[in-house]
TrEMBL record:
It holds the Pfam family HTH_3. Residues 37-75 form the HTH cro/C1-type domain. GO terms for molecular function: DNA binding. Signal peptide: none annotated. Gene3D superfamilies: lambda repressor-like DNA-binding domains (1.10.260.40), Umud Fragment, subunit A (2.10.109.10). SMART domains: HTH_XRE. It comes from Lactobacillus delbrueckii subsp. lactis. This is Helix-turn-helix domain-containing protein.
Amino acid sequence: MPRANYTPQEKQLKSVIAGNLNELLSKTAYKKADVVRQTGISESTVYDYFNGKVLPSPKNVEKLADFFRVSKEEIDPRFATLPENVIPVDQSHLVKIPLIGHIACGEPITADQNVEGYITEYFPESVDPDSIFALKCEGDSMEPYILDGDIAYIRQQPDVEDGEIAAVLVDGDTRATLKRVKRVGDQVILSPDNPRFNPIVLDKDHPGKIIGKMIKMSRFQ
């Protein structure tokens, strides 16, 4: 039965493999039934591969490559040989991160109703995936460091050091704001990097809640 939780990268890979299989088949006189008979792969699984519904196992990629008499990488890009000057990415450092929209009051930050989607991101050091979430930045208050549309990766923690960028909920708002934190007496100052914007002052009359520290930022052009 096909998985229901493929990442965007896996969905793209399924489509690529399906395209490769259909192109290879079109260059022969064979039909899918011949693929089933000669590879020993079940009919439903073969059709799922050709329709881009599931990713083939390494063993089945080898069977399909033998059937079409091609290399495995001509079917599945995961088998491509890297050039000598390319260092492969350690897959253990690729982490699936929930992208958070509005944050429901009283619910865990990564509760299903808060999640708009998922992003797979590389972290050079080991991180706890259950403690990380992503926010899509809106506006230009943190320019030039953070631009509109950037993705900020936040580690859940209740406090940060002065000068660090935190995700903060202000006055009961359900959408987090990213600002640099500074403490002055009983007040917490949330400072923008863009001098055109005024800081936000948190105190007993205007409360706020730090929900995490920004540990990484990605920019997609």
